[in-house]
Design brief:
Blueprint: E1 7-13, H1 15-20, H2 22-31, E2 35-41, H3 44-52, E3 58-62, E4 70-78, E5 80-85, H4 98-102, E6 105-109, H5 114-125, E7 131-136, H6 139-147, E8 152-156, H7 162-167, E9 168-172, H8 174-177, E10 180-187
Length: 196
Amino acid sequence: RKGPLRGRVVVAAGQAILNKFLGRLKTFMNQHPQVEILVLRRRGFEIGAMIEQGAADFGYLPLESCPPTLEWHKAIELRMLLAIPVTHPLAKKKDITLTDLSKVPLILPDREASSGRRIHRAFQEKGLEYRTLVETGDSRLLLGFVREGLGITVIQEQEISPDIKKHVRIVDASHLFGKQVEGMAWRKRGYVPEAA
């Protein structure tokens, strides 16, 4: 093909992935200014159906959320992180366990989201009850509640602002919740725009 890429591409992905790949997206947009890109922020379990129905050309989603009608290729592993108010007693503890977390108010991702299901499953597998103070799909809100000292959250690895870091201790919790494996998915059959 000669000449610049043109066309429209619709990409669906979760917030953590969008934040992680923002630099790459900017580079692509600068290199291909005649490609119109529509980015849709959705939860992993919603993305597969969007691709199947043609509402998105491709998307990033966990393997467990990918329908068999789609092609899926691993793109990234995201650590699961605890965000703890610096004034909280667990902020000083070296090895935090699920039992420790089951005893404090938690501010968690939406249980319908892949990370929310992962967190819930980890507690269930250990037979532990836990207290959810707030549940939301917006990681900025999760971190905001933690910054205000209202509880502890579990989030996917992502950029965290210096303002939040002043008030919050970030701890790798992959040993408790595993890593979130995300991949790129697209239709096995059918039309995918040249720009995609």
